[in-house]
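Contributing new complexes? Match this layout with flavin-adenine dinucleotide.
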Amino acid sequence: MAATTDADVAIVGAGPVGSALAIMLGRAGKRTILLDRARFPRDKACGEGLMPAGARVLEQLGIGLETLPALAGVTYRVPTAGSVQGRFAGGVGRGVRRLAFDEELANAAALTPNVEAVFGCKAIGVEHSTVGVRVETTGGAIAARFLVGADGYRSQVAGWMGWRRPSQPPYRYALVGHFDAPGHRFDRIVVTLLDGCEVYLAPTGPAELLVALLGSKEGLRRESEQVGEAYTRRAAEAHPELAGCGHTAIQGAGPFWTRPSKIAEGRVFLVGDAAGFLDPLTGDGITAGLLAASHLGTLLREEQPRAADAYRSWDGRRWRRRVLMGRLALTLSGSSGWARRAIRGLAKHPAALDRLLEVNEGTRSPFSLTPRDWAALAGV
Ligand SMILES: Cc1cc2nc3c(=O)[nH]c(=O)nc-3n(C[C@H](O)[C@H](O)[C@H](O)COP(=O)(O)OP(=O)(O)OC[C@H]3O[C@@H](n4cnc5c(N)ncnc54)[C@H](O)[C@@H]3O)c2cc1C
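Output block (do not edit by hand):
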């Protein structure tokens, strides 16, 4: 371990979560090194829906989001059973095209005082002790007082710490692309529950719609079918208005649902997807990561003793809520009977869905839901 340090905090991964954390720490006067193996712009398979709570974190950092498509809420549809519209009660969400959004955040981090951003540089190993960490990278070694792994759901930092665990069944995957849709009228996320898969749509520009398919391998594609054919067929099944529209190359992702055995110890912390990744159907990953970055940023800024314990305990409560919402979403999407009942019940009591969306983004406790809200979800 080097006797002198290059930084107070080294962050591996300059996705939205690592970049936001670097901005927070740099502004607080912490010498921060932000590494990413990629050079920006780089794309990332995602549903690209940022919830209002996540948008607020970025607005508080002075990141302007007003040019991004505003999202008023989420509509859930079951063909033949109808649809129900949930409203974001606490502000607007945003459609964030990751190719541009991640680049903007990474550049904002690179321009922050006290932040040294190194892109195109991969972390390849970590040593840690009670006094500091040493990160081996393709550009040389970095010594820092703290290390944050913000390196996504296949986190290598988690692997080097011995904390990584495999995905849990049911194994689900995504196919993601963008449709040309000049003049589209979408101002919200639309989730369509089809037999065997879900189709998640979000506006990402005035002439562009993201469409992500989520499901098991068998649900997404027939045996005889090419991936591109399956994607176009399923997207048009949910949105016939997109039949004939061109789309970009398709990206794949999955399997999901993974949680490391530990997210912090001593001087090493995981944040964002590196600290656990649930099913993307809930669309809360970036928001959850940004909220965690805010919390971790405060702990590291104040150099609280036992910061790792404090972070684990805060995150444990939050993780249990996210697991609850993830399981609820999978239960409803996996059973057409439950989904139909929920659509019927929530249509009669739409405020319940607004509240569920708040629980999902972390601004409301699940314990504040009333028996009437749960009854609506059960179709009563
Ligand atoms: C299909 C799908 C749909 C989704 N839909 C939504 C949605 O609608 N809304 C939402 O909020 N979230 C959604 N998510 C989740 C969202 O994509 C993630 O929660 C978010 O990207 C997490 O950000 P992050 O910064 O933690 O990690 P990432 O965005 O994954 O960034 C990690 C960074 O680490 C870098 N890195 C990795 N390893 C190394 C290394 N060894 N050295 C240096 N750099 C490294 C990578 O290059 C990358 O830039 C979805 C995810 C999927 C897969």
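Reviewers usually confirm one structural detail per submission. For this one: The CA atoms of residues 66 and 125 lie 39 Å apart.
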